């Protein structure tokens, strides 16, 4: 499922030549009959992709919320990147990052 | 003992303390380190503490029951108030203030709690933890105390020997010596000294665990010498000799001694200080850190790039994950580079970790990069926080709070400076809250305050309020350049310098507002940006003497009429056009208004000051471009800021262009006040220029005649850019805080909504 989403994101990236930073909503229509979830995609200037999968149980998060979440995610990610001890590609182990993500998820739920 | 009547506050306070000390939850606090520490923190003489112990019955029982503990606390309060210690004084002394304990130790205690848990009597450990003030040795002491199993006497004896030895050991060797010491002299005590020098790289915890057995036996002895040891941080040997038998005290002494004597033993310093008041850095440690910083980056105001820092800290052999966490904590402005403060904080954390202390989740206050002029206040804040004797010293208050207080602290200062004059010397002080930058600014300011004639630099901060996260390196660079400029401009007349200082101050105030509480951007340095040229102008004026003054004065008036026609393209244009700068300045100011409210005022200012500012404007414009390229838009925010800077610079250039044109015509159209402010700086710069009204013709002449001073202008620009950068960084920090707060708010609101819904659902049932 996530891989499929990634494919879609790639597709969009190649399609649009600009404004990569736009938070692109990935297929709100990506709702399979059985799995009611939505997948949101977000790409940074450095082609780092964030994929967010949410259950549609909530009265659907508003687009703004998703955007803000991605923004926060992006901010935290850049903070993690700034750490010279962090090797890009490693699993992110930053506590601050994790706490931010957790808080976001809790907020949504 | 007789019944003890406590007020509610006392009751609560005492129960908290008791809980704190009752680490084993046995409801009876044996003479463990906590209690000792607590008593030591009370800063009472040893004999008094001993007396208290006896009075409360602990000596009799051999431990502190709850009642004994309460009585003891009450007696501590009595003693602290100066009343004689009597059994009856417990209840007779009315309105007794709560006993005061140096909080830091509590935190330390909590830190050591784990290691000390086994030590029921860890008095020794407490000694280590004890009150920070002199603090550094405390940390060591704590660890040492664990080891101090031996009777105090032996410990005492050993202490003198061991501490002396340990400190002198070189860091690498210290671990070994530490171990040895612990083994040799009666075990525990000797360890203490070792703890001091503590091999920086050797796990501190090991020593502690080893020594934990040692402390034991408190047996109702008087509490270890109270803070004396702490106080004598610097005087190691004397205190140690005076130490009574308490192992803890001995340890303290040793630690103190070791700390004091450990000139080369960074570890010692680190150890002691790392937990002193939880995370305070002792002077020795700081000096050590600074030296280390120099080995990597000779310029103390410079940055250590991430890669260099990574190598350096990797040598500490800490796991990468921990180093990564330390970096997260210490890189305050998230720029991938470490300033001196950040570096010291990181180093301090590494030392602490090496000694077995857990890393905090948030950067402790004492380690926060200090904003300028906040050093003292920040420290005070830290201490006050620590007073809460509530464990987890490491958890500094939310990052926001530390920064806020600091910001607030700086802010008042800034405000004051702003009052000074319209033209503040563009001291490269960071107006923005960002502590790091503040510090840099402070450094710069102290160095440059009176040398930098370029007032416009101050303007920058306001302009770049959004540049919170500008790379510190960038800022630093700009700050440096600013400094450089200022010094080069020192040739300007005194008045100019004064004016510059004034403007600087102003700008500072402007920046500071951003941070702590969005105080309305005081006369944003922006105006000063444009004014930066004014500094140059001033210089030129000074050089050219009177007529120029008139001319300069005339400029500002001339500027207003111009609508910003000529938006000079890039900053390069600015320099040459003095007259234009006025115009462009004015034109830019309107544009800048949207960016910042102050602009409105400044625009007018600019108009007036255009003549003076021309050069400054040019400089500013130039600086902006310089700043922009340097800044790294690490995130959208920064790119935004950059954009702003660009626009600003453009505006400035534009303003400068028209400014020249209008010089001859504009009377004092610009609001007298803003103009006056600008002029003030100018006036200060150039005493002669009092009437800005006159001289349209002279002004024109002056403008044209004044040779552009690229140097001063550039400096101003850089200073402004630096300040802008700093402001931006502060802005980003604030923005983050804001987002976090908003998130929290959302959470709370959601909870509320859910609760309301539940309530509604239940309502119908209630009627049933």
Which CATH class of chain A is shown? Alpha Beta
Q: Structural class, judged by helices and strands of chain B? A: mainly alpha
Mean pLDDT of chain B: 55
Highest-level CATH class of the domain at 8-92 in chain B: Mainly Alpha
Alpha plus pi helix count of chain B:
35
Description of the structure:
The complex is a heterodimer of chains A (109) and B (768). Chain A has 109 residues and is α+β, with helices and mostly antiparallel strands. Chain A has one domain: 2-Layer Sandwich (Beta-Lactamase). Chain A has helices at residues 2-15, 63-82, 95-108; strands at residues 37-43, 49-55. In chain A, β1 (37-43) and β2 (49-55) form a beta hairpin. The longest helix of chain A has 20 residues, at 63-82. Chain B has 768 residues and is mainly α. Chain B has helices at residues 8-21, 33-41, 46-56, 58-61, 66-81, 89-92, 103-116, 123-129, 137-147, 152-168, 173-183, 188-195, 204-215, 228-231, 236-242, 247-261, 266-274, 283-296, 306-314, 320-330, 340-354, 375-387, 400-420, 435-448, 459-463, 472-488, 494-514, 525-544, 546-558, 578-595, 597-630, 636-662, 672-685, 696-705, 710-767; strands at 28-30, 63-65, 304-305, 337-338. In chain B, the strands form 2 sheets. Chain B has a two-stranded antiparallel sheet with strand order 1-2. A two-stranded antiparallel ribbon of chain B has the order 3-4. The relative contact order of chain B is 0.09. Chain A binds chain B through residues 21, 68, 71-72, 74-75, 78-80, 82-86, 93-96, 103-104, 106-107, and chain B through 306-307, 309-310, 313-314, 320-321, 323-325, 327-328, 331, 334-336, 361, 634-636, 736, 739, 743, 746-747, 750. Chain B: Residues 107-231, 380-418, 445-575, 582-601, 608-720 are annotated as: Disordered. Chain B: Residues 318-353 form the EF-hand domain. Chain B: One of its GO terms (cellular component) is cytosol. Chain B: It comes from Phyllostomus discolor.
């Amino acid at each position: 499922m996530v891989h499929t989403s990634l494919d879609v994101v790639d597709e969009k990236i190649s399609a649009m030549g600009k404004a990569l930073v736009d938070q692109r909503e990935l297929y709100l229509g990506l709702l399979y009959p059985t799995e009611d979830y939505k997948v949101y995609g977000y790409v940074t200037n450095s082609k780092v992709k964030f994929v967010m999968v949410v259950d549609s149980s909530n009265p659907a998060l508003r687009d703004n919320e998703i955007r803000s979440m991605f923004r926060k995610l992006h901010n935290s990610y850049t903070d993690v990147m700034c750490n010279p001890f962090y090797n890009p590609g490693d699993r992110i182990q930053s506590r601050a990052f994790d706490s931010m993500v957790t808080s976001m998820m809790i907020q949504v739920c | 003992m007789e019944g003890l009547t406590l007020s509610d506050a006392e009751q609560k306070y005492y129960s908290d303390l008791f809980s704190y000390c009752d680490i084993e939850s046995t409801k009876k606090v044996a003479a463990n380190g906590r209690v000792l520490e607590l008593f030591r923190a009370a800063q009472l003489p040893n004999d008094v503490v001993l007396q208290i112990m006896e009075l409360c019955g602990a000596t009799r029982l051999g431990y502190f029951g709850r009642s004994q503990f309460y009585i003891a606390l009450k007696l501590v309060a009595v003693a602290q108030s100066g009343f004689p210690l009597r059994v009856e004084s417990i209840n007779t002394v009315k309105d007794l203030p709560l006993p005061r304990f140096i909080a830091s130790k509590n935190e330390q205690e909590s830190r050591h709690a784990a290691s000390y848990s086994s030590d029921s009597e860890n008095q020794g450990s407490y000694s280590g933890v004890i009150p920070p003030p002199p603090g550094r040795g405390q940390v060591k002491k704590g660890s040492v105390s664990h080891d101090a199993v031996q009777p105090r006497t032996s410990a005492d004896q050993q202490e003198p020997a061991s501490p002396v030895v340990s400190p002198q050991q070189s860091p690498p060797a210290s671990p070994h010596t530490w171990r040895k010491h612990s083994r040799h002299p009666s075990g525990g005590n000797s360890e203490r000294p070792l703890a001091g020098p503590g091999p920086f790289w050797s796990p501190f915890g090991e020593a502690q665990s080893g020594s934990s057995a040692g402390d034991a036996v408190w047996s109702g002895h008087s509490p270890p010498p109270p803070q004396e040891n702490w106080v004598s941080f610097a005087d190691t040997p004397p205190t140690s000799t005076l130490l009574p038998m308490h192992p803890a005290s001995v340890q303290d002494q040793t630690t103190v001694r070791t700390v004091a004597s450990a000139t080369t033993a960074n570890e010692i310093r680190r150890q002691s200080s790392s937990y002193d008041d939880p995370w305070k850095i002792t002077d020795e440690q700081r000096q050590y850190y600074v030296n280390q910083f120099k080995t990597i980056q000779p310029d103390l105001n410079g940055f250590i790039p991430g890669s260099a820092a990574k190598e350096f800290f990797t040598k500490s052999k800490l796991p990468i994950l921990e180093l990564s966490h330390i970096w997260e904590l210490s890189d305050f402005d998230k720029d991938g580079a470490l300033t001196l403060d950040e570096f010291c904080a990181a180093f301090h954390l590494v030392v602490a970790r090496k000694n077995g202390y857990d890393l905090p989740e948030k950067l402790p206050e004492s380690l926060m990069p200090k904003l300028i002029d906040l050093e003292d206040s920040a420290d005070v804040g830290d201490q006050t926080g620590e007073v809460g004797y509530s464990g987890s010293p490491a958890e500094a208050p939310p990052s926001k709070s530390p920064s806020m207080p600091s910001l607030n602290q700086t802010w008042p200062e800034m405000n004051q400076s702003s009052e000074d004059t319209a033209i503040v010397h563009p001291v490269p002080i960071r107006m923005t809250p960002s502590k790091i930058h503040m510090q840099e600014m402070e450094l710069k300011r102290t160095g440059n305050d009176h040398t930098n004639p370029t007032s416009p630099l101050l303007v920058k901060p306001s302009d770049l309020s959004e540049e919170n996260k500008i790379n510190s390196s960038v800022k630093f660079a700009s700050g440096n350049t600013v400094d450089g400029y200022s010094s080069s401009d020192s040739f300007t007349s005194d008045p100019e310098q004064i004016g510059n200082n004034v403007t600087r101050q102003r700008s500072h105030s402007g920046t500071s507002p951003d941070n702590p509480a969005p105080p309305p951007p005081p006369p944003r340095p922006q105006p000063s940006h444009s004014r930066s040229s004014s500094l140059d102008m001033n210089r030129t004026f000074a050089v050219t003497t009177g007529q120029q003054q008139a001319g300069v004065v005339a400029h500002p008036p001339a500027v207003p009429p111009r609508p910003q026609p000529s938006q000079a393209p890039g900053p390069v244009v600015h320099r040459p056009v003095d007259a234009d700068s006025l115009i462009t300045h004015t034109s830019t100011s309107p544009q800048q208004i949207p960016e910042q409210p102050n602009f409105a005022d400044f625009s007018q200012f600019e108009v007036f000051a255009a003549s003076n500012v021309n050069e400054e404007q040019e400089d500013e414009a130039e600086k902006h471009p310089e700043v922009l390229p340097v800044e790294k838009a690490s995130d959208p925010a920064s790119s935004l800021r950059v954009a702003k800077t660009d626009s600003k610079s453009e505006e400035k250039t534009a303003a400068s262009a028209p400014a020249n044109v209008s010089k001859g015509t504009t009377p004092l159209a610009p609001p007298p006040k803003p103009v006056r402010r600008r002029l003030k700086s100018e006036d200060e710069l150039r005493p002669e220029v009092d009437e800005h009204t006159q001289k349209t013709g002279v002004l024109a002449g002056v403008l044209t005649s004044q040779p552009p001073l690229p140097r001063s202008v550039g400096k101003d620009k850089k200073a402004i850019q630096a300040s802008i950068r700093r402001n931006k960084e502060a802005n980003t920090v604030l923005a983050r805080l804001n987002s976090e707060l908003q998130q929290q708010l959302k959470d709370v609101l959601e909870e509320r909504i859910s609760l309301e819904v539940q309530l509604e659902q239940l309502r119908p049932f209630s009627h049933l």
